[in-house]
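Sharing a chain and its predicted structure for anyone who wants a worked example. Both blocks are below, sequence first, tokens second.
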Amino acid sequence: MVMDPAERKILAAFDRPGARALSLADFGEPAAISGTVARLVEHGWLRPEGNPDAFARTEDGRLQLAGPRDVTIYSRPGCHLCEEAKTQLAPLLREFAARLTEINIDEDSQLRARYDYDVPVIFLGARKAAKHRVDLAQFRRQLINNSV
């Protein structure tokens, strides 16, 4: 799905330090951006947070901004498969100068419900690349294809 610049700008606003929930006014003139915010909520990339004019970016919304070499691993503490996957991926991440973001699913009830029995789940950009175990040859091909 292609995002328009206004949608991208709103989702990127959450990358500022300390930006967990933002109000319509934080995105610009509320009347001008309310339709854009409504679309982002409809896509599941933002969710209402607290008062009616406050919103939080969902993890799906964060993934929409992920670049082709951004790797996200959904894991939980004490998961031996998660630790194994991170160890296996480390050389490929260095080789391709890929950036790793690790998300603890136990800190977000929606992510825990989605991935509870599937960790680790690994995304490359906004696409799921693996779960449970990593096929390193396939992951390398995915990194190469994302780099072109």
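Comments welcome. DSSP finds seven helices and seven strands in the chain.
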